[in-house]
UniProtKB/TrEMBL annotation, chain A:
It comes from the Bacteria. The gene is purQ. Pathway: Purine metabolism; IMP biosynthesis via de novo pathway; 5-amino-1-(5-phospho-D-ribosyl)imidazole from N(2)-formyl-N(1)-(5-phospho-D-ribosyl)glycinamide: step 1/2. Part of the FGAM synthase complex composed of 1 PurL, 1 PurQ and 2 PurS subunits. It holds the Pfam family GATase_5. Keywords: ATP-binding, Cytoplasm, Glutamine amidotransferase, Hydrolase, Ligase, Nucleotide-binding, Purine biosynthesis. This is Phosphoribosylformylglycinamidine synthase subunit PurQ. The keyword Ribonucleoprotein does not apply.
Automatic annotation (TrEMBL), chains B, C:
This is Phosphoribosylformylglycinamidine synthase subunit PurS. Pathway: Purine metabolism; IMP biosynthesis via de novo pathway; 5-amino-1-(5-phospho-D-ribosyl)imidazole from N(2)-formyl-N(1)-(5-phospho-D-ribosyl)glycinamide: step 1/2. Its main location: cytoplasm. GO terms for cellular component: cytoplasm. It is found in: Cytoplasm. Keywords: ATP-binding, Cytoplasm, Ligase, Nucleotide-binding, Purine biosynthesis. Its EC number is 6.3.5.3. The gene is purS. The keyword Acetylation does not apply. InterPro entries: PurS, PurS-like_sf. Part of the phosphoribosylformylglycinamidine synthase complex involved in the purines biosynthetic pathway. Catalyzes the ATP-dependent conversion of formylglycinamide ribonucleotide (FGAR) and glutamine to yield formylglycinamidine ribonucleotide (FGAM) and glutamate. The FGAM synthase complex is composed of three subunits. PurQ produces an ammonia molecule by converting glutamine to glutamate. PurL transfers the ammonia molecule to FGAR to form FGAM in an ATP-dependent manner.
From TrEMBL, chain D:
Pathway: Purine metabolism; IMP biosynthesis via de novo pathway; 5-amino-1-(5-phospho-D-ribosyl)imidazole from N(2)-formyl-N(1)-(5-phospho-D-ribosyl)glycinamide: step 1/2. It comes from Streptomyces indicus. This is Phosphoribosylformylglycinamidine synthase subunit PurL. The keyword ATP-binding applies. Signal peptide: none annotated. The lineage of its organism: Bacteria, Bacillati, Actinomycetota, Actinomycetes, Kitasatosporales. Substrate binds at residues 103-106, 125, 250, 322-324, 550. Transmembrane segments: none annotated. It is an enzyme of class 6 (ligase). Its main location: cytoplasm. Keywords: ATP-binding, Cytoplasm, Ligase, Magnesium, Metal-binding, Nucleotide-binding, Purine biosynthesis. Its EC number is 6.3.5.3. ATP binds at residues 58, 100, 510, 547. The active site is at 55, 104 (proton acceptor). Part of the phosphoribosylformylglycinamidine synthase complex involved in the purines biosynthetic pathway. Catalyzes the ATP-dependent conversion of formylglycinamide ribonucleotide (FGAR) and glutamine to yield formylglycinamidine ribonucleotide (FGAM) and glutamate. The FGAM synthase complex is composed of three subunits. PurQ produces an ammonia molecule by converting glutamine to glutamate. PurL transfers the ammonia molecule to FGAR to form FGAM in an ATP-dependent manner.
Amino acid sequence: MTARIGVVTFPGTLDDQDALRAARLAGAEPVSLWHRDKDLKQVDAVVLAGGFSYGDYLRAGAISRFSPVMETIIEQAKAGMPVLGICNGFQILTEAHLLPGAMLRNNHLHFICRDQKLRVENAGTAWTSDYEQGQEIQVPLKNMDGRYVADERTLDELEAEGRVAFRYLDMNPNGSLRDIAGITNEAGNVVGLMPHPEHAVEPLVGTGRTDGLGFFTSILKKLVTA
Amino acid sequence: MARVVVDVMLKPEILDPQGQAVQRALPRLGFDGIADVRQGKRFELEVDGPVDEAALARIHEMAETFLANTVIEDFTVKVEETSEVAGASK
Amino acid sequence: MARVVVDVMLKPEILDPQGQAVQRALPRLGFDGIADVRQGKRFELEVDGPVDEAALARIHEMAETFLANTVIEDFTVKVEETSEVAGASK
Amino acid sequence: MTLDTVKHAAETPDVSQPWKELGLKEDEYARIREILGRRPTGAELAMYSVMWSEHCSYKSSKVHLKQFGEKAPESDALLVGIGENAGVVDVGQGYAVTFKVESHNHPSYIEPYQGAATGVGGIVRDILAMGARPVAVMDPLRFGAADHPDTKRVLPGVVAGIGGYGNCLGLPNIGGEVVFDSCYQGNPLVNALCVGVMKHEDIHLAKASGAGNKVILYGARTGGDGIGGVSVLASETFDSTGPSRRPAVQVGDPFQEKLLIECTLEIFRENLVDGIQDLGGAGLSCATSELASAGSGGMRVELDRVHLRDATLSPEEILMSESQERMCAIVEPDKVERFLEICEKWDVIATVIGEVTEGSQLEIFWHGEQIVDVPPRTVAHEGPVYHRPYERPSWQDALQADDANKLPRPATSDELKQQVLKLVASPNQASKSWITDQYDRFVQGNTILAQPEDSGMVRIDEESNLGVAVATDGNGRYAKLDPYAGAQLALAESYRNVAASGAKPLAISNCLNFGSPEDPAVMWQFAEATRGLADGCLELGTPVTGGNVSLYNQTGETAIHPTPVVAVLGVIDDVTRRTPMAFSEEGQLLYLLGETREEFGGSAWSQVVHDHLGGLPPQVDLEREKLLAEILIAGSRDGMIDAAHDLSDGGLIQAVTESCLRGGRGARLVVPDGLDAFTFLFSESAGRAVVAVPRSEELRFTDMCGARGLPAVRIGVIDGDAVEVQGEFSIALSELREAHEATIPGLLA
Ligand SMILES: Nc1ncnc2c1ncn2[C@@H]1O[C@H](COP(=O)(O)OP(=O)(O)O)[C@@H](O)[C@H]1O
Ligand SMILES: [Mg+2]
């Protein structure tokens, strides 16, 4: 039996199909979840996909965070269910205070789309166990509000506890503090990052790399062996 | 140093998708009784030197030509007094 | 119908590239003497019914939980009087 | 305020009406009276005036555009031709692809962000209205001089608008163009293209039939957008208590459009619509009259049912409003409930505003009183047709006589090298990644190729790997020198770009950007360009599926260069066989395909080095283009070539530089016998491409070219980290990269 990975569609979510495809390619059973339903259809893990939910109006993720599906997700995440937030999903997780800090407009004020190099700083989370600690990967990045900020104390804490999960390499594309590309919660089940692993799962499309598949194989292994 | 605030809002007849999205979300969050929401920009300018007529005229021009796009936006210029609970003048 | 204005600004310690970009452009456009610019958001809420203590308390809560993200932003709530040259209260 | 009802109009024949202010000519107004047998009501006048405008009626261009139909090549690929929202092409395996380019030039000058954003929104709805899921966008752009201060206002706004809207819709941007020329200073061109995919059986048309079927308006509320002109009517026909000024600018809400797309696709999936039309220019006037005109019966609309954003709008204004993100559907009565349910699911407002009737008239009511009673065809399809006078301009001969081939050429190798560096750094030839990095090219996970590749390519079937490729091109400088040849060169270049990626060109769309049709010289350019394009399409066997005309692109007496932008759509059976442009394998051989002549008229070299425009553009040989395309496609399919890049602006050296930079490898080039280094590097002869051939395939490849009669000459090898032209110069890749990539950020950042 394989694991069921749910992908939430909010109004304005864009990368839900890609996340479902990535889950399928990794061998999981992809399940679509709808923002108005509190019911998670018995999924084992949830991906909050990228896009512009509610147009990114007010603040990216600010409106989605209050949707019915999030009520259940917040509750379940606190109880240990694995949740991965990609881009807009990461923004939703910070707005929901499942992850600390906040996401702001890129420091150069433009949308940026590029092939981005990252270092996996924590290979111990639910979503990164298939990577080596310190492994360098390259996946697409595309965002308008990708600048990660938090106060110094929080940043120090994140560093000290190894909760900076990914760091930008070569170039910081949006002004994120301490080159942070993604973080995890204390328990390691909730992970958020700006770049898009779900766009790097097939050799031909996008940038032609498959460096992102590891997120989905990591969680699958964890769930199936659990 | 004095502070001048320029508020820029979409003209009333122009679609404000952001304000609409906020308004539509409010009842879901349990906030009723808000008939309309418009979202605009607020610029806080710290001015060197005195905020006299001439300075205000320049800021007005700056708002008109740069801070606001008067094809779709209106603006107001106010001098902010030192206190937070300040009076405002146009 | 009364209008309540919520102003949301980034906390002073948070980098504001939008404000900076505005400030950097000013000298090029011939506007000197502006030492700093911060850009924030202004929400104009049209409130059904009276804006009494209770209503203001609700709006304050709405600002705190929704209109602003207090991790990075500060906000103020003001009732706007009918006149344009209005007094402001926090 | 008295309502100008049909009854009132019949009783008051002598009321004076502001037809002139609405842009109608005296004879046009007379014709409206003749059609109706009375004076039009205010609402009718509003409808006719906007539907008979140049933009909606194509009254100046129609007689020329006819050729696209008359000269259409035989093609089994065309499922829906010109005349619908967009043409539809059969790409095999049961799939149909629809694509179209449109302009949003004037609005983008006034308000760059919103003008460009709503341009994207509009073309996406056109594609959606055909029944297709939009899968990609492209944006051919023209701006004034790169260093002009106003370009700094217009360009960043336009780019942010295109990105802001397209990114938020989740449509990958897979290509476009950015060209600078002072002729576009007061008239930037913002063209936008969208591609959509569906199954054959999903094709939908814009027609209203079946008496009793409901007319549903859904999407955004209707506000006062884009009706500046019609307000004249509100204030002149009636008392002036209403708001005096309406905004001419429309503001887009891409979030709303995203919901509209998903909602509409779900409605299609459940087969709930009979006919459908997007609301674009001329809003409800256009949608209702076109749906009724194309259908079998009449239509009755209760205009007061329309959901408004601004309660003070007059009925005329509601009819004219160009509020974005709206669609109009014809739905059978028993399907209405489900239709509305789906709209509710997606938070989309929907209203039944009328129904299809037995009659033949379009009738519109306002709180029970009739304000419109017209034969819909007379509004939508039988507008005025002009045979505007045209004449070859007196200056054309002198322009062509000013031969670019006689310009001074570089005298030394060092000068040659300096000119190469100047060329690759010039704004038109420089890297556009500062712009294209603001566009999402990965979303939907099907992008095979995107900028800066020759064409944009998306996979449309994950199982079979079927894909489509699209390229857009247009060279206003060539077209200025010779509009007939210029249009064919745009076609040829776009065709070549698609083939260079390994796809087979099938059909075209176009956007014809010209000056004022009232100027006989401009009209001549237009006539020549359309004739050239129609002849070219016939010869290449690629039918025109649709397009758009933008006239009056001029400042005072000065028109822009005639700028026909041509988009070619191609199909590739297996996207794993696509040919990228990057030279990435050390040791592979470089072949130049086609024939190089001394052709510098309109060239990038003549512009960059001499600021010159004169002479004749490169010769067109469409038979050769076809042959070249066949070789490029066969070479890709059979694994004989690993990279290909077509030659166009800037000639060979530009193409080699781009391919080397993309692959991060250098090249050693040898000037072939019979050519001098200057001509070899800078000539812009058409019908050429450079390809990288693995050594093991060399013989097979040259045999194929030899057998087919395509000139193919070995010009060098991929090697090292410099571009070296033997006996002339060597430039390090790092230096080329700096030259090529620093320009645009330097101008705009
Ligand atoms: N505005 C734009 N949007 C997207 N892609 C663009 C844009 N402008 C240029 N490009 C891309 O940059 C590349 C180079 O452009 P160009 O030099 O015009 O190509 P070509 O000479 O093949 O027509 C192409 O892939 C083109 O699609
Ligand atoms: Mg090309």
